[in-house]
Each structure stands twice: as C-alpha cells, then as structure tokens.
Backbone:
C-alpha cells in the first residue's frame, strides 16, 4: 500500500535470561526457537531487525544489531532499534512473547503516538523515533525501567488479549505454552 507509512519490526533477543537459565532466543517451542517464532511474527513489516548483544554469540538465522550498551535492559534494545530503523514507526517484540500475533502488533502500530503499549506494560509495543530523546536520556541516566520512560511519552494504551501477552520467563512457562489447551 503506497499510502501506508513504512514499519520496522524489531525483535529483542538480548535479555539476561537469568530465571530461564539459558538464552530464551534459542529455547524451542513446537520445533522452532523463540527467535524464529518472533522473526516470523514480524514478517508483515517492511523491515525487520533483531537487537541484542553481539557478545552473546547467539546462533540465529538472521543478523543481530548490537545494542551498544553495557546494561541488560529492554530500554537499551528499544533505543538501539529506534536508531537503526529505516522507518519512523517500529513495533518491538521481545523474544519471550511467542503467543503475540501480527494483528496484535498492527493494532499497536495503528494507535501509536510516541508509543503504544498494552495495559500490562511497555512490551510488546510500538514506538516512533519521536520517543528516542526521552528513552535515550533515561538510558544514559541509568533509569532503566522502560515503563517509567513510557510514562513520560505521549503513549496510547491498546487492549490486547492477555493470553497472548504471556512471557516465557522460566522453563515452566515454556512447558505451559507447549501444552495443548484443555477443552
């Protein structure tokens, strides 16, 4: 569509995975890694980038943009993504939310002012480059809570299905997602 602005899809792959015990991006669900699931989910975007830490040496089937930060915090990935993106509008998907669907991300993008987030928090979310000064300043000042930085933006809250927002923080979380729903 010529009248639709470009959209960059961002996959955050640089989390510490402390509770999970190994890199979440490489964890498998239904025969695919969480990174592969997230990358596929972002397939509707005009551009896709993955952001993380090169030092992690993750064996992924796509390149990873270095977030350029010594900290492990989602805000570092969002800042790096907004700097690297070819488009003004980005949808940002953490690798540990494999149940999100493209329509959820489209809803966030369609509602985005400086940011658009679900009621549960700042990720997944949509962010415009207009958010970069506030996010970058928070990162430089060591205020790493993305939720707090979003509170200083023109942010829209978009209701999404809470079941699709489930994070995989532990191996047990992954096991629960892998189980078929009981009818």
Residues:
């Amino acid at each position: 569509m010529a009248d639709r602005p470009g959209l960059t899809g961002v996959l955050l792959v640089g989390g510490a995975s402390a509770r999970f015990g190994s890199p979440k991006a490489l964890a498998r669900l239904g025969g695919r890694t969480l990174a592969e699931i997230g990358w596929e989910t972002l397939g509707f975007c005009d551009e896709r980038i993955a952001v993380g830490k090169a030092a992690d040496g993750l064996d992924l089937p796509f390149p990873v943009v270095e977030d350029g930060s010594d900290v492990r915090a989602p805000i570092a990935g969002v800042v790096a993504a907004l700097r690297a993106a070819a488009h003004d509008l980005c949808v940002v998907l953490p690798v540990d939310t494999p149940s999100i669907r493209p329509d959820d991300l489209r809803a966030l993008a369609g509602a985005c002012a400086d940011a658009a987030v679900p009621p549960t928090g700042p990720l997944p979310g949509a962010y415009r480059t207009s958010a970069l000064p506030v996010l970058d300043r928070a990162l430089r000042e060591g205020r790493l809570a993305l939720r707090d930085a979003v509170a200083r933006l023109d942010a829209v809250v978009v209701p999404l299905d809470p079941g699709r927002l489930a994070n995989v923080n532990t191996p047990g979380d992954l096991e629960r997602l892998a189980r078929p729903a009981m009818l």
Observations:
- The domain at 7-177 is CATH 3.90.550.10 (Spore Coat Polysaccharide Biosynthesis Protein SpsA; Chain A).
- The longest strand covers residues 7-12.
- The radius of gyration is 15 Å.
